[in-house]
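User: Teach me something about this protein's shape.
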Amino acid sequence: MYEVFGNVASRAFRVLWALEELGQEYTLTLANPQDAVIRAVYPVGKVPAMRVGTDILTDSTAIITYLADKHGGLSAPAGTIARAHQDAITHAIIDEIDAVL
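Assistant: First, the predicted structure itself:
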């Protein structure tokens, strides 16, 4: 089971949605940016973060990519041309649109 740190009004929502789509079990530990709860697991204090065993993953895009690869859903297979095209679109959106928001 995964433990997600954040709240639904943050980018943690992306991770929660991916987990739901993949049918994976998780718990949500409510945390706002810079809360003591999140800083205890990720000293930078940004949300979301996700606990996988004893590891903490950060950044919603990185977490979703990990989940997609691990559970074989939501994306083209890693190492394929289709995935390279998908990643190019994802990074373009992050660079050009999401960063402005």
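Now, about its shape. The helical segments are 12-22, 36-41, 60-71, 81-98. The longest helix spans residues 81-98. If you'd like, I can walk through any region in more detail.
User: That's plenty for now, thanks!
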